[in-house]
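[scheduler] slot 2 assigned
[scheduler] job type: sequence-to-structure, two independent chains
[scheduler] chain ordering preserved from manifest
[runner] begin chain α
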Amino acid sequence: MVESRNLKISSGKKIIFAVLVLLVLLILLEIILQVAGVQSRRESPFFLLLKVHEYPEYFQRHPTLFWELVPNKQIKGDFIAKGEYRINSQGFRGKEFEPDKAANTIRICCIGNSCTFGWEIPEGNTYSELLETALTKNYPGRKFEVINCGVPGYTSQQGLTLLKDKILDYRPDIITLSFGWNDIWGAGKGITDREQKIHSRLIINLQNALAKLKTYRLLKYVLLELSEKKGLESFDHENPAYRVSRDEYRENLAEIHRIALENGIIPIYLTSPAPDARVYFGSGTITQLEKLFEIHEQYNHIIRDLRDTRQYWVVPLATYFQNQPGLFDPELKDYIHYNQAGHLQVAELIANYMKRYRIIDNIMGENNLNR
């Protein structure tokens, strides 16, 4: 009996010892990986061509938005395009702002993807910042606050969720919406944004905590390399499924419109510009981007149709950008994000649109703002 008890104690000690040894080895491995600066990054199998999940320095997982920018962050790194980006306490790019809107202030939230965020655009030159300057000039003595709510990689599905989860709390008078490019990216495993599994806050917090460990990221990298196809290899080219289908895109925009109007917000949609192939490649040139541009234009057509059939407010940026050189990367290495000249053009077009249709004047009249 005594021998059996000693045997159990001895076995228990061995297990504890083994666990302690494993823990020490994991700690040593983590230290080595940290010191060596080892990076193990691989795109998510569910969001093709997007690597936000592999950059916990800049992004964190979110239960309904899938990801969001890490608040209170000064970004300068190897994923966010070259430059420095200030992320405020609300998790958006730009200067700090109070969630509660100040009195006698017209607040505008610019919701969108990396084009709105300002990919490679220096601080002070994004169209949201330039729009605030333009409106202040057009309406002397009025107070405007334009907030950049663009997040890299976002689709209209995420924009709809963002509006419900965060933007409504800011009580904006106007929202602008710019989506399209990410909506037409391939849906990994054929699972659209709308079909993505929603995890609990507990699981999301655990994933965010573990993602800071290089050991965990290396293990995940190895498992994905062994079990998952890379990038577009997992995309069904014969029967493509996009992150947001055309029907879902229309439904998302309509739902955004409904929610905005119910909350006294004016929604203004922006068609999404693409570089003109004739300007960049010459007339008659056929490029591999032709099909992509064609699909992109189909999503723009949905916005125009909503304007024509339901009287949505729409600023036709894509039309204004046509036949204009110098608004994108001259070498067309980046055919999605417009440059500083493009951002200035966008800001001026939105400001002129608001002035032409007296949108600001009507808001000031309805809210009895000081004249």
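[runner] end chain α
[runner] begin chain β
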Amino acid sequence: MTRQLASIQKILNIEAIPDADNILKCTILGWSCVIAKKDNFKVGDLVVYIEIDSVVSERPEFEFLRERKFRIRTIKLRKQVSQGLVLPLSILPSNKKYKENDDVTEILGVKKYDPEGDLERKLAEEKANRTNNKIQKFLLKYPWYRRLIFKPKQGGFPKFIKKTDESRIQLFPDICEREKNTIFQITEKLDGQSVTLFLLKKSKHKFLFWSFGSDYQFGVCSRNLYLPKENDSSYWTIAKQYNIKKVLENLMFTSPNNNLVVLQGEIIGNNIQGNKYKINGYKFYAFNLLINGKPTDTKTMLFVLNDKGIETVPLLSINFELKSTIPEMVEYSKGKSLLADIPREGVVIRNYDKFISFKVVNPDFLLKYEE
């Protein structure tokens, strides 16, 4: 599912909030949001819904968010958790008719809150500053040029690998009923930095009786970018620290037909998301292992990788059935991290036979760290 940061959605339910005279709770998709009574919203109304982890533009309608740097995050009002911003359609241009699920992200100038993307831009900036090109050095003085060249490009990530970005359960409001008899595996979601590492088998070039060229390409990627040259970033540090290239070679050679091995995981540690886990240096926890495009289930991945000195994200269950409702699943996501004395960020839920994968984020974690 393509993420719509701002979209047209329907109010599915409205409830009173105890001891609150001016606000109400409403349900949009699977989200619970606080709305103002004075807006006179009704069940069935179409509204503009802006997701958490969004940053809105500096428009008069959003001036009340200036102190929060225009960021939409999880908040609590009168003991009611609210996730997202609900606005009337009147904030949109009136020259078109809007319908449910329309994406209005660009119309409203909404951007994703993206600290990892900020880090990627920093890496790009450091690389650009090392250039010997006098023209580029001159242009780097100007903000418009820095914004242009430091913006991560979609083409920078290998097209043959899927990015690591799970959708939240709230975007699938019927999933608890639809998949009530499905068995899932559950792991703890870690608050770190996504990394993708791969080994790709390449065809050798031939000339008469000689073959030349490299047999295999080893790659290191951040969430959005391929980082072809070894550097001192956390991504390459992890690759060297865990000898990932050797690990992937061992996995590649388990079968003569293997052409691609992909290992994806989370880096936690110094200068990453505030280092909530209090790690010295960096640690890597794998959450995806794909061989020839086929994902390895969590239990098997744990067995295969632990033998090679690589830990997986904490495994919570291999035989889990979804709760009856999304609020119950959100309640399940709460709990203590298995890695540190902090609330866990949430859980990731997968069924490998049906290729179902989504996350449930713990609101207690979001509130504690103001996320």
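[runner] end chain β
[qc] chain β: The CA atoms of residues 47 and 88 lie 5 Å apart.
[scheduler] slot 2 released
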